[in-house]
Design brief:
heterodimer; A: alpha/beta; Rossmann fold; FAD/NAD(P)-binding domain; 4 domains; five-stranded parallel sheet; 28 strands; B: alpha/beta; four-stranded parallel sheet; 4 helices; 41% helix
């Protein structure tokens, strides 16, 4: 069958990036010898307007039924070339990209001969793969114009209102009895100085008055089924349980403050509080102190919690300024381990008379009654600072419920247990399962301003999906041949996305059923299937064997 | 065959390890050209069959490049891959092939230099193990 194929091979010089280190003329000659290859072309840049035009014309003129482009990494340009193929009437899955730049020319410089023979081998692999490949159709799912927002903090409220104003029916689920989340415990926002409580109340009013938002307080998420476009959500509250559907989901569950048990005599002695508790004291007007000391990075940037929680430094500066503005004679000292660059207000704090001491992790400050002993890095001496209020800046950590949530929504967590978005730059605010988005502290500590921006971002991405009405996705999924299935259930066991379920069929036998919309194409089920009923839809065994045969040069 | 260079097949997950390999290129970090990278969507979809097929096709060493623990795009594909690799090692051993010829390494996307240096050390190791005692065909 291979002689009937018309494969086009397009070699890219990438300026001189590839051409300088790989003998493309020789590669071209070798390619012409391959069975099924009817067209070989070399261009300076295949990704240029002219190059793409050439590619398109060649596909039409030469009646190519398969295309291989050898150039840069598929991670950047594969999509572009696939679009061109499609525009020329060629199925996008009959296209293959060979990485000659990042994985050949650039890593085997100045050894032209070896790099060239590797390039030939890589191209033979690419041609073999595409030659054994098949055309595939994209998967398409309808999107219902409804949304579920989990969490009624500032991120959740903002996202819900943004979607509702666009005419989307939103269900906002909050586990507490009132909206506002962590915003309720804050004193004033920086730099506007707006009272956090009244701001939260304003936002809550907007939510309550919006007829498109169904507000569910005191409510927990108990079950989630279905897939993008029509998730079936079950929630539970004191009134009973309720099931509704949501086309998209926005996760805005927030974080919580790390409690520094027994660190710096916290809770063992009066006058030692966290920044969050201090905000509450400020709000109540309970602060009477002559000597205030703040310690930064309590429980963060240490071995068990290596991340910087980002918001503690701005919070400390904000509170130090507020203290100084209110009680001019109060002495404020901040013990820190270096400030991140984005922190604002350092100059203002310094002008107001706040003092700063940098401490070292190997010489932690010690609390002795009402004296704080600290090794001052600048004067290389131990300093003793009296205090009547010690404020500990502790990081935000993920909520305890996050484990349950991540299992229910099938989203991964990072080493610190925060939820991980699909790709920070390429698919921001989006999770691996389609139609689930994130905003706020659930994926890393964020300020109120950042949370709001993220909420708008998540709402925009979710709305784009709703507006379009359907989701088209690559068939990067498993394929099940039910006739071969012997009902062992191994696939159901390993599937992290509940995409495969063992079901009783009409003739009484157990057989696996695959939901391709829940499937993410990880292939775990394929690797455990003992009868070969499960395959990858996008990469057949035949292709893999053909590639391996060429790779090892036999 | 001892005069020729050994062929090494690297099964690289398309997420972190493939990016790490690209980053080696971006940073122009050199390694030996014996290495041929085969991209897979996730190392979780590799079977012992794939690994053994690589050997029977003539590869003298196979390196499986997965994502770091906790970095798997598909929650735990890299962990299930570990079991597959262990199983394949046992089969290699009983087939008379040194199980050192199969290796599982985990990468983060920024590990360009680590990728290059591991490729070099693996090629060197395979060279020192040279002659495949028996080939499963």
């Amino acid at each position: 069958m291979r002689h009937n194929q018309r494969i086009g091979v397009f070699l890219c010089r990438c300026g001189s990036e590839i051409a300088d280190h790989v003998d493309l003329a020789k590669v071209e000659k070798e390619m012409r010898k391959l069975a099924g290859v009817t067209c070989v072309k070399t261009a300076l840049y295949h990704c240029s307007r002219k190059g793409l035009q050439q590619l398109k014309e060649a596909i039409r003129k030469e009646k190519l039924d398969r295309v291989v482009v050898a150039g840069c990494t598929p991670r950047t340009h594969e999509g572009l070339f696939q679009q061109v193929c499609e525009a020329a009437g060629l199925n996008r899955y009959l296209f293959e990209m060979v990485n000659l730049r990042e994985q050949c020319a650039r890593v085997h410089r100045n050894q032209n001969e070896k790099a060239t023979s590797k390039a030939i081998a890589l191209l033979r692999m690419g041609v073999a793969k595409v030659s054994a490949g098949q055309a595939h159709d994209s998967l398409k799912a309808e999107i219902e114009p409804t949304a579920l927002v989990i969490g009624g903090g500032i991120s959740g409220m903002t996202a819900a209102v943004a979607l509702a104003n666009r005419g989307v029916k939103v269900k906002l689920v909050e586990k507490e009895s009132r909206l506002g989340g962590m915003l309720r415990s804050l004193h004033r926002l920086y730099p506007s100085g707006v009272e956090a409580d009244s701001y939260a109340e304003d936002q809550a009013d907007t939510v309550r008055n919006n007829s498109n938002i169904g507000l569910l307080l005191d409510t927990h998420l108990t079950k989630l089924e279905g897939h993008v476009g029509g998730y079936q959500v079950t929630v539970e509250n004191p009134k009973g349980s309720e099931t509704f559907s949501g086309g998209v989901i926005i996760v805005a569950t927030g974080g919580q403050v790390f409690v520094p048990h027994k660190m710096y005599r916290y809770r063992l002695q009066r006058g030692i509080v966290t920044q969050l508790e201090f905000e509450d004291m400020m709000k109540r007007g309970e602060v009477v102190a002559r000597n205030v000391v703040m310690i930064q990075c309590v429980g963060s940037r240490v071995e068990e919690r290596p991340y910087c929680a980002r918001i503690c430094c701005p919070t400390a500066i904000k509170n130090a300024i507020a203290l100084k503005q209110r009680f001019l004679r109060t002495r404020v000292t901040i013990l820190h381990r270096g400030f991140p660059e984005y922190v604002e207000g350092l100059d203002q704090a310094q002008d107001l008379g706040v003092s700063f001491i940098e401490y070292r992790l190997d010489k932690l400050p010690q609390v002795r009654r009402n004296i704080l002993k600290v090794w001052d890095q600048t004067i290389e001496m131990e300093a003793e600072i009296p205090f009547d209020l010690l404020i500990l800046a502790t990081p935000l950590v993920p909520r305890l419920e996050v484990e349950e949530l991540s299992k229910m929504l099938k989203i991964p967590r990072d080493e610190n247990d925060f939820l991980v978005e699909s790709h920070v730059k390429l698919r921001p605010k989006e999770f691996v399962p389609n139609g689930i988005f994130i905003a706020g502290c659930a994926h890393w500590p964020a300020t109120v301003g950042e949370s709001i921006t993220q909420a708008y971002g998540a709402a925009a991405r979710a709305y784009a999906l709703i507006e379009k009405g359907y989701l088209e996705r690559e068939p990067v999924v498993a394929a099940l041949n039910e006739a071969f299935c012997r009902g062992c259930g191994s696939c159901e066991e390993v599937c992290e996305y509940s995409a495969i379920k063992l079901e009783q069929s009409d003739d009484g036998l157990k057989v696996s059923k695959l939901n391709q919309f829940l499937c993410t194409g990880c292939g775990s089920c394929v690797s455990v299937c003992p009868s070969g009923a499960l395959k990858l839809a996008f990469l057949s065994d035949r292709q893999m064997q053909a590639v391996l045969k060429q790779a090892a040069g036999i | 065959m001892s005069n020729t260079e050994p062929e090494i097949i690297v099964f690289a997950c398309s997420w972190h390890p493939y990016t790490a390999a690209d980053n080696a290129g971006v940073e122009r970090i050199q390694y030996q050209p014996n290495v041929k990278i085969v991209k897979v969507n996730c190392t979780g979809n590799l079977t012992t069959g794939h690994i053994l097929r690589a050997f029977s096709s003539g590869a003298e060493g196979v390196l499986v490049a997965g994502c770091g623990i906790g970095e798997c795009h598909y929650i735990r594909g890299n962990e299930s891959c570990r079991e597959v690799v262990e199983e394949a090692k046992e089969i290699l051993q009983v087939s008379g092939i040194d199980k050192e010829r199969l290796s599982l390494e985990l990468f983060s996307d920024v590990d360009g230099s680590k990728f290059a240096s591991l490729m070099d050390s693996f090629v060197d190791k395979v060279k020192s193990l040279r002659k495949v005692e028996a080939r499963i065909r």
